[in-house]
Amino acid sequence: MSITNQEYDSLTKQASPGTKSYKTIPMAFLIGGLICVLGQAFINLYIWLGVDQQTASTLGSMTLIFIAALLTGLNMFDNIAKVAGAGTLVPITGFSNAVVSPALEFKSEGYVLGLGAKMFVIAGPVIVYGVVASVVYGLILFLFGLV
Q: What percentage of the chain exceeds 70 in pLDDT?
């Protein structure tokens, strides 16, 4: 069976549900904002407990990473993402989910070949690009004497 590109496009449009932007955009804004407010609340809590600003920021990020990983492990993060859409992609929580999800999916294949090898299937390219980009930027700054 062969179909033309136009027929395939028509079938795809029929099978794909429409996006309700009037609902998804405000929810993404709201949930993403709440995640950021939660992060700031943790930072303020750690400062109130006597930790310096930089350490409090690190602890706040670590707390958000832990909560996102825990919610992913408890199968709750996906339910939040269904409502929030892109709002859950606030970088730190989305990255945590991107690392934990494949790890959970492939844990039955063992710790090394399953969990260890598949953990960075989604997040790995992001890490590689970030490292390569930082090296390139560092070299450019070094070569032009800006460092």
A: 91
How far is it, in rounded angstroms, from Cα 140 to Cα 138? 5
Tens-digit pLDDT profile for residues 84-115 = 888 888 778 888 888 888 777 776 777 666 66
CA distance 144 to 132: 18
Residue 37 has pLDDT above 90, yes or no: yes
Place of tokens 């303020």: 44
Q: Which sign does the torsion angle of CA 66, 75, 26, 94 carry? A: positive
Reduce the DSSP state of residue 124 to 3 states and report it: helix
- Residue 27's Cβ-count burial label (10 Å; 0-12, 13-18, 19+) is middle
Which whole-number Å values give the CA distances from 33 to 60, 64, 97, 108, in the listed order? 15, 13, 18, 36
